[in-house]
Design a protein that fits this description.
single chain
């Protein structure tokens, strides 16, 4: 998605060569931003961050991958993050400015409901996802250095706090996006302000989080200082020339052994090795990207390629993933204006 021109751009990735082709662009609406795929791959949801806040639902043609507008529904707030639960029956959102999480049902035709449950959070809720078992939901709450933890009621979509309702990350890190080990045993969270990754084990019975590891991801050679919390009025910190850490996304490879985080100030990614048995992490390296101010990234289904968007780039890049996470830029395709959110769908017949 590219909010500055309201477009959702569709690409085809060749899994054999890494080549990337722009196939089609769909005008979704002003400030189209976070997106989420339904678990069955039939529908793409996209949130618009201008009033009246709403979500667009698009059917995905299984042969071509192209989008067909199917439904829209209101949202309770401007959402910085969008996801579905693992059953595809609930649409979940995190509002950075509204300090809330939202949950709304999705019907059998993949249409979001107008009935929305709203859950207040601390300042700057920035992500929300259900775990692979679909029994628990977690949210990165940047302004209070917490990962919120809930049980998910499968019949109603209601969220109930687990224990005291949160696990703390390292102070001052600013937890932003979260990702899961494929096994469902561990949760990883990137610190926007620190460029770190905190790893948590997930109690299989209760869903409670226990911190396993905290790893630095910004080498001193980048000459960055600690980040600052940003909002719509000072997102680029125009009055502060100090180069500051500004991490964004976190993604886990399909085999669960490699983790990337993006760092926007230096237009780079940092790679970590994850131990699938213990959840411990080891920093592998920091690698430059051609896409300026990289926001979101996505692994190809094979894990051989990494796709990168840049908020201040006019291309989407495809990179070959090498040893220790080292990247080789392989291909590019034109992007929309201010491209930031990217989702990958595997359509073997397309």
């Amino acid at each position: 998605s590219s909010p500055e021109d309201g477009m959702i751009s569709q690409y085809r990735l060749d899994e054999n060569t890494g080549s990337l082709t722009l196939v089609h662009q769909t005008h979704a609406g002003d400030q189209v931003n976070p997106m989420a795929l339904s678990p069955d791959g039939s529908t793409l949801y996209a949130a618009l961050r201008v009033k009246p806040f709403r979500v667009m639902a698009y059917r995905i043609d299984p042969a071509s991958g192209q989008l067909d507008a199917a439904a829209e529904a209101p949202l309770a707030a401007s959402l910085a993050y969008l996801s579905t639960d693992r059953s595809g029956r609930y649409l979940m959102g995190a509002s950075y400015g509204g300090n809330v999480l939202t949950v709304q049902p999705i019907d059998a035709e993949h249409r979001p409901s107008e009935d929305i449950k709203v859950y207040p959070t601390g300042p700057y809720a920035h992500s929300v996802r259900s775990d692979p078992s679909n029994r628990f939901v977690y949210a990165g709450n940047l302004g209070v250095d917490q990962v919120l933890q809930f049980t998910l009621d499968d019949s109603s979509g209601a969220l109930e706090p687990i224990g005291n309702g949160h696990a703390s990350v390292t102070a001052g890190s600013g937890p932003r996006h979260i990702a899961f080990a494929p096994s469902g045993k561990f949760l990883y969270v990137v610190g926007e302000l620190s460029g770190t990754v905190d790893s948590f084990s997930i109690d299989a019975q209760t869903g409670a989080l226990t911190k396993v590891a905290h790893v630095e991801g910004v080498p001193k050679s980048l000459n960055l200082v600690h980040g600052e919390i940003r909002n719509a009025g000072n997102n680029d910190l125009k009055d502060d020339p100090t180069p500051r850490i500004w991490a964004a996304d976190i993604r886990v490879s399909p085999d669960g052994q490699l983790i990337y985080i993006t760092e926007r100030t230096t237009s780079s990614v940092s790679a970590f090795k994850a131990d699938p048995a213990s959840g411990t992490l080891s920093f592998q390296g920091n690698y430059p990207l051609q896409e300026k101010q990289p926001r979101n990234i996505a692994f190809s289904p094979s894990g051989r390629w990494l796709l990168v968007t840049g908020e201040k780039a006019d291309k989407v890049g495809s990179y070959a993933v090498g040893a220790a996470g080292a990247l080789t830029r392989t291909a590019e395709a034109p992007s929309g204006k201010g491209a930031l959110w990217i989702e990958m769908l595997n359509l073997p017949g397309a």
